[in-house]
Amino acid sequence: MAQESKWEEKIKRSRGRRGSKPIPGCSEGERPSLCWEGGQSFSQGSELVVHKHLHDGEKPHRCLECGKSFSWNCLLISHQRIHTRERPYECPQCQKRFQTSSTLLKHQQIHTEERPFHCPNCRKGFKHNSHLITHWRIHTGERPYECPQCGKSFSDSSRLTGHQRRHW
């Protein structure tokens, strides 16, 4: 099976699981379409056909611009925004626009003082987990980014990149 994107994995997890809730207004006897791999049942056979794409790896929704294929049409629509440069989600504070609602939500944190990631050593707060990881290296002394030309090491890749410009 081809490697799934994080969105396809998320959809797979969010779709019905074993012991799924019954479909409202539909008795157990009226649910003829059962997925033998996932255990989910459907009131209509067409729903089962669509669901089976999760198990067989089929990706019938193809981008006509670049040829990339997706299991779900909603993923194709989201992908196509790369080509159209459509940004339908707007930040109400600064009017900056985004291709996905999740990117907008992440952006909106810059307008708040929320710092949900805290250093367990000094309690300093960060808006992004990646910044906490870089900060943590101050306490550990870890310097995982090494210059291949002179051997000097750095706690984050951007400092290494800046250093490497000096060798040019």
Describe, in plain words, how this protein is organized in 3D:
The strands form five sheets. The protein has a two-stranded antiparallel sheet. The model is unreliable at 11-31 (pLDDT under 50). It has 168 residues and is an alpha+beta fold. It is built from seven helices and ten strands. The chain has helices at residues 6-14, 45-51, 53-56, 73-84, 101-108, 129-140, 157-164, and strands at 33-34, 41-42, 61-62, 69-70, 89-90, 97-98, 117-118, 125-126, 145-146, 153-154. It is elongated, with a radius of gyration of 23 Å. It is found in: Nucleus. InterPro entries: Ikaros_C2H2-ZF (IPR050589), Znf_C2H2_sf (IPR036236), Znf_C2H2_type (IPR013087). GO terms for molecular function: DNA-binding transcription factor activity; RNA polymerase II cis-regulatory region sequence-specific DNA binding; zinc ion binding. Keywords: DNA-binding, Metal-binding, Nucleus, Repeat, Transcription, Transcription regulation, Zinc, Zinc-finger. It holds the Pfam family zf-C2H2.
Strand order of the largest sheet: 1-2
DSSP summary: helix tally: 7
**Strand-residue fraction?**
5-15%
What helical percentage do the residues reach? Answer: 25-40%
Provide the residue-averaged pLDDT. 78
The total beta strand count reads: 10
Rg computed from alpha carbons, rounded to a whole number of angstroms: 23 Å
What sort of overall outline do the alpha carbons produce when their principal axes are compared?
elongated
